[in-house]
Amino acid sequence: GIVNLLWAPLKNNGIAALKSKDSKFIPNPVWRNDFGYYNKVFLDSIDKNLVLLNEKLNTIINDAKEKVHINTGEFIESAKVFNYAIEIEFVEEVAGSIDKIDGDTFIELIFNYLDEKTNDCLDYAKNDFIPKLRHEMIEAIQTTRNEIKIENINRAISQSKIQLEESIEFLQSWFNWSGT
To answer: pTM for the full model?
Structure first.
């Protein structure tokens, strides 16, 4: 799903923190193993900055996951990517013509409405949701990269950024619809 897709770049490059039993991010011991030759000040800075990055990305990823859950109208919430809340005008239009149309026309009317809503949702995903998600995640990674002055870790962060861009491109492809 979306969570694993967006976390994979950090995990693949060894910059994902661990979670404690109380679901708080803690430094990954592998960081100390890989970079133990640095002094304690640098190691503490690595721990702090990578944990902060993981906390920030966790918030961004969980917010994104919540936004892609489909709203079928049971919630009054417009912040979902797939917001299928039915507008009262459409209900009134259908109610006003229910006695004048046959079953096939009624079904076509409903499916056309759903197609239109789906197209609007997909446009929102591609033109608003994905660009904002990309910006927030890349900005968090870049901020961390600027804070850490150790080249080996910055290489891992840069590689994570490249892979994250690829993951986001793949995520964007999920929002392509043929209309059939």
So the answer is: 0.84
